[in-house]
Design brief:
With 295 residues, this protein is an alpha/beta fold. It has 9 helices and 9 strands. The chain has 2 domains: 211 residues, P-loop containing nucleotide triphosphate hydrolases (Rossmann fold, 3-Layer(aba) Sandwich), CATH 3.40.50.300; 62 residues. The chain is globular, with a radius of gyration of 21 Å.
């Protein structure tokens, strides 16, 4: 492959924002305020037993409710449903259930290990692809993504230099998700019980060193930054193909879109290629199933 040197340029992008906070700190409320500030059609994936409906007075938004088991497949189907219906922002409330909920990835890993099909270490080989599929779906979405996560007290083990004994030390709060998930987002906000947010990661530099309460103005500020980049024909083509694949209605149409994806593959990022491949594989499986049922 030929190596290309080009000038760096920030282009228009979609939001990838995480909010981590203890239970009761206002994650759902704050995520909705952010989404209303961004504007457009809002869809919420609610795993919090109907808590998303409590804020209907804030404005118009739609909900897909998920219940246990909280499998990655359910999250993927909900994300794709909102994408196919043309929503602008998807709120995932909460992403923690996909990891630590009943039927989530930790539960799946434990059941695989207990079944004798592997030990607790080798079981991750079957679980990690599901985690990666969820990350790719969020990063490759043509929608703005806001994901909430519960926070818990985090600890580290340290060896005391004087006594040589191992000690447990508190190191603050950490999201209930797989280690490193917070690094997947453009902006990662941590919130306390007073509803005050600060950025633990911020590629936009909008919130560096600031402590603030999230409101609609926060969403407006973020979307202005996202829209402040140069036009991106590649992103427009990717979003077009992504939408067409989600709404494909025949194997002939799918084959044509696969060829079109191949033509533009070199211009797409790895996350975009993975997201398109996931949809193609799912649609292929759906059409194969329809053919078998009709036979």
């Amino acid at each position: 492959m030929a190596i290309e040197i080009r000038k760096a340029q920030r282009t228009k992008a979609k939001l990838r924002l995480g909010i981590a906070a203890p239970s009761g700190a206002g994650k759902t409320y704050s995520s909705l305020l952010l989404a209303f500030g961004i504007g457009g059609k809002i869809g919420m994936i609610d795993t919090e037993y109907g808590s998303g409906d409590l804020y209907a007075h804030l404005g118009e938004y739609d909900i897909i409710s998920l219940s246990a088991p909280y499998t990655v497949q359910k999250y993927l189907e909900a994300i794709r449903a909102f994408e196919a219906a043309g929503y602008d922002t998807i709120i995932i409330d909460s992403l923690s259930h996909a990891w630590a909920g009943d039927g989530g990835l930790l539960d799946k890993q434990g059941k695989i290990a207990d079944s004798g099909r592997g030990n607790s270490y080798t079981a991750w080989r079957q679980v990690t692809p599901d985690h990666n599929a969820l990350v790719n779906a969020m990063l490759g979405s043509p929608c703005h993504i806001i994901a909430t996560m519960r926070s818990k007290q985090d600890y580290v083990q340290e060896r005391d230099e004087k006594s040589g004994k191992t000690q447990i030390r508190k190191v603050g709060l950490a999201p209930v998700q797989r280690d490193g998930m917070e690094y997947e987002f453009t902006i990662m906000l941590d919130m306390d019980m007073n509803h005050t947010a600060h950025a633990s990661k911020d590629r936009t530099s909008l919130f560096d060193g600031k402590y603030f309460k999230i409101n609609q103005g926060t969403g407006k500020e973020v979307v202005d930054w996202l829209e402040g980049g140069a036009e991106s024909p590649t992103l427009e083509k990717y979003n077009d193909l992504h939408t067409k694949l989600l709404n494909v209605s025949s194997t002939k149409e799918l084959d044509d879109l696969k060829k079109e994806c191949s033509l533009h593959k070199a211009a797409f990022s790895d996350d975009q290629i993975k997201a398109l491949s996931m949809i193609i594989n799912q649609k292929t499986a759906d059409f194969d199933k329809q053919t078998q049922e009709a036979a």
